[in-house]
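REQUEST
  id: r-88c1
  op: predict_structure
  target: Thiol:disulfide interchange protein
  payload:
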Amino acid sequence: MLQHRRIALGLLLAGTLISTGCSAAADSGAPPADLKAKLSKHINREITSISKTPIKGLYEVVIDKREIIYSDAKGEYIVQGDLVDLAKRISLTKEREAELSVTDFSKIPLADGIKEIRGDGSRKLVVFSDPDCPFCKKLEQQSLASIDNVTIYTFLFPLSIHPDAERKSRLIWCADDQATAWKGFMFQNQLPDNKGECPNPVAKNLKLGESLGINGTPALIFENGRIVAGAVPGDVIDRLLNEAKAEAASKKK
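RESPONSE
  id: r-88c1
  status: 200
  body:
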């Protein structure tokens, strides 16, 4: 039986503060050396890191590079939820999730994506997409339809839940005009006429996505390295593209 119990975040924090008499600004110190081993007995996923929080005795546990939970020092309790700084009125959990969802854009092998240039192509966007993913089609047909002045690199990322997606990905990649083939399928459900037997990066894309913590589609990566999951609205994508471009430009100065 799993001995850990999910308890309300507020109750745990209140109990911690009462028992220790410490404020939320107290230094919790380094996590116990055996905490990861204890948690691993009950969490059947990769524990990426364990680090202190502003609350004594409470530790941040990052799972699969992206997900955050919290644990006591003995690994007897886990907490799922947001850790909120009431004075600043911010979620420390959400801030950390944003930090974790960042990668080095310059290290992404853009040649392994289907390249489409719109307008002056000055902004850059990487999209991990599955041809049989309905949310990916929504992203293409709605969210990305009005986006201009951008270079989009679509990384074919067939999920195992879509058994025919890998074959379709190969057919699209092997087309003479990959961008047109991709659009043809996402908008009109038409596949190019070829055998799909050319060299392709599909297997590499799956490994790359896994290394980035991507386990679903669509997933968008902006020039500043920010990773955003889901069929994000077009106006949000446009804003994030502008922010990423400005941030990238400021780093070059």
